[in-house]
Amino acid sequence: MSEMSKIVRTITSIAFPFAMIYGLYVIAHGHLTPGGGFQGGAIVASACVMILVAFGSKWTLDKIKEKRLSVFESIGAVAFIGLAFLGLIFGTVFFNNFLVGNEYLFGVIPTTGVANINTAGILPLMNFAVGLKVIAGLFAIVLVMAYATTNYKEGKK
Amino acid sequence: MSIPLPEYTPALIIAIPLLGAFLTPLISRINDKLRNIFVILVLGLNLFFVSILAYNIFTKSAQEPYIMKYVFGGSQNIDLTLPIVRILFEVDAMSIFMAIIASTLMFVAVIYSWAFMKENTGLDKYYTLMLLLTAGMLGMMLTGDLFNFFVFLEITSISSAALVAFWTHKGESVEAGFKYILISTIGALFVLFAIAILYGQYDALNIAVLANAIQYTFLDKIALVLLIVALAMKAGIVPMHMWLPDSYSRAPATVTVALVGATLASLYGVLRVIFTLYGNILLDPAKFDIPVNIFIGWLIIPLAVISIIVGVMMALRQTDFKRLIAFAAVAEIGYIFLAIGTGLAAMGTEYGRTALEGGIFHIINDALDVGLLFLVAGAIYYATKEWSLNEMGGLARNMKYTTIFFIIGLFAVAGMPPFNGFASKLLIYESTFQLNPILAIVAILCSILLLAAFVKVFHSAFMGPKLPKFKDVKEVPKSMLFAMGILACIIIFFGLFPGLVLENIVRPAVDALLSNAQYLSMVLGGA
Amino acid sequence: MSKRNLAAAASLSIIAVIFLFSALLMHSFGVPDESEMDQYVIDNTQAETGANNGVTSVVFDYRGFDTLGEATVLFTAVAGVIMIFRRRKE
Amino acid sequence: MIYNIPYIAVVCLILIGLYALVYKRNLIKMIIGITLIQSGVNLFLITLGYRKGSIAPIYTSSPGGIMALPIPQALTLTSIVIGVAVLALMLSLVIHIYRHYGTLDVRKIGRLNK
Question: How far is Cα B193 from Cα B226, in angstroms, rounded to an integer?
Fold first, then answer.
């Protein structure tokens, strides 16, 4: 994908932070409102793809390599499965929600109608792990495909 | 007598390869050799756990069927007054039997990869995908939840499709990969559709709960047909077999060995659906007016026979080494389905049970024999860079060990007496003869023709004068010989002591399949 | 129309008839026959998982293992795509 | 019977997808067919979870009343993500096929192979 016009680039730069914040909001409030790691991750990834479309794949690939994205994805995945293993260690069962019931970290039992962010045990943490994974994963897919098709059009084969 | 194991071992069997797969991209940034050792260690550890768990389950289920349960995320004691929401792993003798096959094949494939794949780029992703494929197959085999089965089915098909297309510089590989993913996605979507139909009626996803609740309404029949068609398509039965020779022959040899495992995992799905999910109806024909088991059995038998015939006939015509073995694999799958069909049609009789024993035994034999042959084909490719049989000749002089392994694989796959294929095929012939003599005769004839096809290969590739262009051909590296040696040793062991294997491994698996009432009571009966 | 097309059309129409018939046999839209399992989730999500969002509690807690599989599927696809588009040393 | 219209829509989606798979010769169109089947199945799952007059199964600032079934929604979420993954892999394989053969027509690709 090649670069688009200056108007598009400027508007994208303005819109990008908003999309990003919205996505992160959806990830962070996954246990309270509709949404979660996957949905929010998809929003952030589409914000990144917007940058890719506006600035071209070459520019984006100079900024971030797909190898680094792959590492981020691995970190997200390891965090997710690590949380599952923590359930095994602290709660005796794989995938146990061991944080529910304590009063300090995400353990409060919520009441209907009230939005308390300090609830749901390991769910918010898992949301973040999955969110990181989805952002890196989806963006890596689109980036790699965009770069591959660009090269082909230029006749390099 | 059983070895003490933590109760979360079934979860560990999935978690180890998954964690390994997630860590591989990080580790391969350090060092390539370290990554190879890491991957082999992970799969070795996995094989170790699977074997010990298998030992435990086989010893316990020698007296009566035994199921190991594991509940994810909640209390291990299932409260029967509440619905089962969480995902369960239900490991019985049949699932662990398949798990042994899968983890052995993957372990061998990874050892073989060390030398075989050395000159390729993109190996960190290759090893990641191999680990993911292992996790997917094992998940399919151990899970007791239908939707979870679908998820693992998708992991298996995506990773194997990507691996089939590993040699992207060859158009045919990419095309084969595309074919594979197209077929598997359609199959997986049908599976999901069937799961949704069942969910909509009974509001449950656990296999045991569903099996207990199923009423055999019209919608249940639709779901049964969808599940069997989709999974049999993935197992490569004629007329939906065309993807199989393509993807088997275009993929690297190590991937092909893994694909044999993936195909057998789908076959396991068919068995699970027929014998457990719909077991209440199919295992107990007296319950219903229509003999459903005979209907489904006779639906499977013709397809199986056609698979055998098509596989053998096409194998005779091939000049491409790997394609020939791939068609032989189609025929082998046909034998397994023939046994299953016979077992269903003759449910309740003595020879129906014999047929199932033969079929289940043939699953492991098929995996070993076909796996060994593909590894031999890979070794020849490694040494000569040649697939076509017309170009080969006189390789026996330079590649002694490979030739020996090929002879072992040849006799085993054709069902010659001292090897393992004979034992299982004999059971299949015996039981099908009692059902219908023509079936047995066709099966025996095709087996002989299969031998002819492989003898042709042996003659054209290994015998004859030494060709000048293969003067410098050397024996393949030790790691590849070691990998082939593992499979060959198991084949010889199984061939020498078929009774031992039948008694200790196959019988418990068949018992686990047939004892549906115990399955339900052991899962649903708490404790 | 070739023979192959005719056969395909015939099988497609058979599938169509069967599927449409089964659509009529499903329970009425909005009135599930059984909902015991889901009602259990709705009733217990706050007490057992501490989440106000029932769907998230199913995704990450009750069926958390599915989500691990789902994340793995995505991981697999990314690994596959990056592998397919790897730069080869010619 | 009138209440079964959503299911009929599901069946129609799946049939259109199957039609595209069987009759279309272009790889991209076949992929579109698969996506249609996927949407059909996802729609089916969501449809199963609806209860008349229900609200989303979320307690945060909920007005009260009966709630829709949460499990089908979770399953749909999973199946959507799986669909995305499959789609990505299929499209990248198609890109490679186009590079090798210069065409997306199934028949031509098959002929070049021989």
Answer: 8
Q: Which helix (H) or strand (E) holds B70?
A: strand B68-71
The parent domain of residue A59 ranges over 6-153
**Cα four-point dihedral sign B322, B324, B326, B329:** negative
Task: Note the pTM of the prediction, 2 decimals.
Answer: 0.92
Q: How far is CA A68 from CA A26, A37, A74, in A?
A: 24, 20, 10
Chain C residues 47-76 with CB within 8 Å of chain B: 58, 61-66, 68-70, 72-73, 75-76
User: Quick check: B11 and A77 CB within 8 A?
Assistant: no
Q: What are phi and psi of C28, to 5 degrees?
A: -60, 145
Chain B nearest CA to C43, separation (Å)? 12
Block means of pLDDT (10 residues each) for chain A, 157 residues, are 82 91 87 83 90 84 80 86 80 73 66 68 83 89 82 50
The pair of three-digit structure tokens given for residue B181, joined into one six-digit string:
């993913």
- D84·A138 Cβ contact <8 A: yes
The first and second tokens of residue B519, run together, are 């399955």
Question: Do C38 and D49 make contact, defined as CB atoms within 8 angstroms?
Answer: yes
Answer yes or no: is A56 within a domain: yes
What residues make up the domain containing D55? Answer: 2-113
Closest by CA to B182, choosing from D10, D76, D63, D97, is D97
ipTM summary value: 0.91
Structure token digits, residue B146: 């239908």
Instruction: Output the CA–CA distances (angstroms, integers) from residue C39 to A33, A116, B226, C61, D68, in the order listed.
Output: 20, 23, 29, 16, 9
Q: What are the CB-based long-range contacts (under 8 Å, 24+) for C42-47?
A: C42/D57, C42/D67, C42/D69, C42/D70, C45/D57, C45/D59, C45/D70, C46/A109, C46/A110, C46/A111, C46/A112, C46/D59, C47/A109
Tell me how many domains chain A contains: 1
Do B228 and B274 touch, CB atoms closer than 8 A? yes
Identify the CA nearest to A85 among candidates A74, A95, A100.
A95
Domain assignment present for A1:
no
Note the pLDDT tens digit of each residue in B429-467.
Answer: 888 888 888 888 988 888 888 888 888 888 887 777 777
Average pLDDT for D48-73:
81
What pairing do the DSSP bridges indicate for beta strands B88-91 and B68-71? Answer: antiparallel
Q: What is the mean pLDDT of residues B191-216?
A: 86
Q: How many domains does chain D have?
A: 1
* CB-CB neighbors (< 8 A) of B71 in chain A: 93
Buried b (16+ CB within 10 A) or exposed e, B393-424: bbbbebbebbbebbbbbbbbbbbeeebbbbbb
Q: Which of A128, A126, A139 is nearest to A42 (CA)?
A: A139
Instruction: Give the domain CATH number at D37.
Output: 1.10.287.3510
What residue spans define the domains of chain B? 9-520
CB-based contact C72 B84, cutoff 8 Å: no
Chain C residues touching A80 at Cβ < 8 A? 68, 71
Indicate the average pLDDT of chain B.
85
Candidates A94, A105, A119, A150, partner chain C, best to mutate (most C CBs within 10 A) = A119
CB-based contacts of B509, cutoff 8 Å, min separation 6: B93, B94, B97, B360
Rounded distance, CA C47 to CA C50, Å?
6
Please name the residue that has the structure tokens 């295992």.
B283
For residue D26, the cross-strand partners are: D105
CA B103 to chain centre: 10
Please tell me the distance from the alpha carbon of residue C82 to that of residue D11, in angstroms, as a whole number.
Answer: 35
CB-CB contact of D53 with D77 (8 Å): no
Chain A nearest C-alpha distance from C40 (Å): 16
- Crossing angle (nearest 10°) for helices B146-164 and D70-101: 10
CA A25 vs CA A28, A34, B92: distances in Å? 5, 11, 44
